[in-house]
Amino acid sequence: MLSALTRIDRRGRIVIPRDFRRALNLKEGRR
What we know:
Layout: H1 2-5, E1 7-8, E2 14-15, H2 18-30
């Protein structure tokens, strides 16, 4: 799942879409 959402930048680092980032933040905030 992660591999499908993550994208590789020109420099070679992994970039995560803003929507997915928001979901992670919400999940972490519930903790």
